[in-house]
Write a structure and sequence with these properties.
Blueprint (H helix, E strand, L loop, with lengths): L1 H12 L10 E3 L6 E3 L12 E7 L5 E7 L7 E5 L6 H15 L2 E5 L13 H18 L7 E6 L3 H8 L7 E5 L23 H4 L6 E7 L7 H10 L2 E2 L3 E3 L13 H14 L61 H7 L7 H6 L5 H10 L1
Helix pairs in contact: 3-4
């Protein structure tokens, strides 16, 4: 049961579009890479940078950085399933324009023109590589980064957010508690489960916005609500009445709520955080904050402001963190070796299918 269920969860999570919606071409005169998608005509070349980044697991992923001239913050966007950055470009473009943010989108290993095969552990290495590129190439500091995870993307976004104490904010769009919990109502986590978001949300210190549709038939809204309840720093959630799993960007409330959130985040003073040592990354649980120094709620029914006060020294390492919040690669790979009659169920349930993504992009 365990190995079959884990295989089912893995197959549920990853449906790379085939063929990819774009190719990467290099301008012979400038040496600059571009994505050959028709929709790219909507932005000038100087506003978009296409990059290839090596991950610590040896894959080369493709990223797209959209620069906004007046941006103060940068969104690192982890997209949903059955799509790639070519299909997502219109949404990326609209978010960058309307929210006045820089935006970095990337394809997971095995998606788009990124090399390798997708897996839970690969997505963690992928987002880490994109994050490192922002810091090293653009000089973007953690306190200027907002992680945005849609559906499957909530997994790598929460994994990284749980290890970045200076992160500015986190947006969870149609998120799930864990891969197994999408299919079964289980009270406890099992070693063969993937993307254990329910455990990692409790390690996130920054403000969290959750967006979910009330009619989501793929990931029930109860997942989003529980993750919001478990957040330390809650921002007023957006429960979109009638929203399904892949059409939330089409609702008129979507962009105004995000603008309000970004505006609130921009007004917050750059927080001073507690001392963070390398050894902290190897503890199962993070040290609880002193209640007298903890932040008030932002944008919720409790308050509209957040002022964080912590010690002002920081040392961060985003290397491997052991403990229950991460599956071991060996155990995860062993769990994939068998697959039984539950396979048909896998193919009938997807975390954002191809058709709904294409419709959302076409209507954007």
């Amino acid at each position: 049961m365990g190995t079959a269920t884990s295989t089912m969860a893995a197959k549920l999570a990853f449906f790379p579009p085939n063929p990819p919606s774009y190719t990467v071409v290099t301008d012979e005169s400038t040496g600059k890479m571009r994505i050959s998608a028709e929709m790219m005509r909507h932005r000038r070349d100087e506003e978009i940078e296409v990059v290839k980044i090596m991950t610590r697991r040896g894959n080369e992923i493709v990223g797209m950085y959209i620069k906004h001239p007046t941006a103060k913050l940068t969104v690192l966007y982890s997209h949903g399933n059955a799509t790639d950055i070519g299909q997502m470009f219109i949404i990326y473009n609209e978010l960058s324009h309307h929210l006045n943010v820089n935006l970095m989108g990337y394809d997971y290993s095995g998606y788009g023109r990124s090399s390798g095969k997708p897996s839970e552990q690969e997505t963690y290495a992928d987002i880490e590589a994109a994050y490192n590129w922002l810091r090293e190439t653009c000089g973007t500091k953690d306190e200027r980064i907002i992680l945005y995870g849609q559906s499957v993307g909530s997994g790598p976004s929460l994994e990284l957010a749980s290890r970045l104490p200076r992160l500015r904010a986190l947006v969870l769009h149609s998120p799930f508690l864990s891969g197994l919990r999408v299919m079964y109502h289980v009270k406890h986590s099992f070693w063969f489960d993937i993307f254990k978001n329910i455990e990692k949300i409790q390690l996130v210190d920054c403000p969290v916005l959750v967006i979910h549709g009330t009619d989501d038939k793929v990931v029930d809204i109860s997942h989003g609500k529980q993750l919001w309840e478990l957040s330390k720093e809650k921002y007023e959630p957006l429960w979109l009445k009638g929203g399904s799993h892949c059409n939330l960007e089409m609702f008129p409330e979507y962009l105004p709520h995000l603008r309000k959130f970004i505006g609130a985040i921009e007004k917050l003073p750059v927080p001073q955080f507690r001392r963070h040592s390398v050894s902290d990354d190897h503890k199962k649980d993070k040290q609880q904050l002193d209640p007298k120094k903890s932040s008030s709620w932002i944008g919720s029914r409790h308050s509209t402001e957040c002022v964080t006060s912590r010690d002002n020294s920081r040392k961060m390492n985003i290397g491997h963190r052991s403990g229950k919040a991460r599956n071991s690669t060996d155990s995860f790979d062993r769990a994939r070796n068998s697959f039984d009659r539950l396979g048909e169920m896998v193919r009938s349930v997807r975390l954002c299918n191809v058709d709904c993504v294409k419709n959302a992009v076409a209507e954007a």
